[in-house]
Amino acid sequence: MQQTPKKNNGCLWLFVFGLISFMGAIGIAAFLDVSWIFSFIIAGIIGAILTSKIIGKPTISSLVKNVGVIFFLVIGVRFLFLFIIEFVKVPATEDTTFNIEEGVAKSTILEGIDTVSVYSSNRVWKDNYGNNYQGKLTVRENDFNRLYNHINNYKVRGSANFWGILYDYIDRTDTPSLDLVMKAFEDIHINKKLNQMEFAEMVISCIQDIPYSFVFQEACMPAENYEDSIRTILEDCPDCCIGNVKYGIQNPVSFLQNLKGDCDTRTVLIYSILKHFNYDVAILNSNFYRHSIIGINLPAKGLYKTHYGKKYVVWETTAKYYTAGQLPGNFNDITHWNVVLTSK
């Protein structure tokens, strides 16, 4: 009696083909010193030949069907992975320690023929797309001493937009003394050949990378005296708090001298830097969330706030891994956010 030819399952054929191709590509890349793309092409051809000889050729219909199943399975797993990643993000609590080499140190630099005392921190960080950066954030000791607690002398000018007016005063007072910081970012800009969005990403991720600290108008108390969200951070890092600071915000020069900053301490510094580089940037505050974020008028996907016809894409600054248009899940109702200051 004549035997009916065996019909091979397309799924089995794909599995064996994928296994042979994957292992073959690794071997070819390792021993022949060729690119991964070339390795996978050669391994794929060899894999198809060997798989057909081992288990036979699959039917076209079963092969197409199982390719479709695998495609949608991969898409589904990727979607689930991204969904989980989005919800495990937490603001400001992930890192409360510095690497030793990144702490602030007192040193000197030469300016012309003068030796100038400075406070400098060597920042080493990655942006939210894995690009590596390194630079020194430096302020002069004389500038720090001159501007320390200058917010105490601020004269309140009405209450309609208290925070916006205060932030504008801080920006205008401190920015002339941030020239060394601007130079450091400008050097990175030139060396890395960054476009407008990449430069903003680089600057903001640098500040995101600095561990969070509370800045209180009153004196800092032991951790057990605070609500859970604050207590958890202070139990892990008792030094992550500075108190007796007027309005609960450090001016940029003071922030760079000790690297202790909360939300609006960071947003004002970022605002000053991006404004200096001619960005259309905004600071948004929320009384509901008791938080402050940056907005940037650049083409990007995600959450945004419209202000006088311009779209400001929002940006979280107190924790790593947030890109333009992303906010933590507990802060993402855009109706609770208000623009308090813009650069243009």
How would you sum up this structure in a few lines?
The chain crosses the membrane at residues 12-31, 37-55, 67-88. By secondary structure, the protein is an alpha+beta fold.
Reconstruct the topology from this structure.
Elements: H1 10-32, H2 36-55, H3 60-88, E1 104-111, E2 114-126, E3 132-140, H4 141-147, H5 162-174, H6 179-192, H7 196-208, E4 214-215, H8 228-236, E5 241-242, H9 252-258, H10 263-276, E6 281-286, E7 291-296, E8 304-307, E9 310-315, E10 338-342
Parallel strand pairs: 4-5
Antiparallel strand pairs: 1-2, 2-3, 6-7, 6-10, 7-9, 8-9
Measured as a percent range, the helix fraction is: 40-55%
Major beta-sheet overview: 5 strands, antiparallel
* Largest sheet, spatial ordering of strands: 8-9-7-6-10
Oligomer: single chain
Shape: elongated
- Portion in beta strands: 15-25%
Q: List low-confidence stretches.
A: 1-6, 87-98
Q: Tell me the span between the first and last alpha carbons.
A: 88 Å
**Overall mean pLDDT score?**
85
* H/E topology pattern: HHHEEEHHHHEHEHHEEEEE
Domains (count): 2
Structural class designation: alpha+beta
Count of alpha and pi helical runs: 10
Compute the gyration radius: what is it? 27 Å
Count of extended strands: 10
Keywords: Membrane, Transmembrane, Transmembrane helix
Transmembrane segments: 12-31, 37-55, 67-88
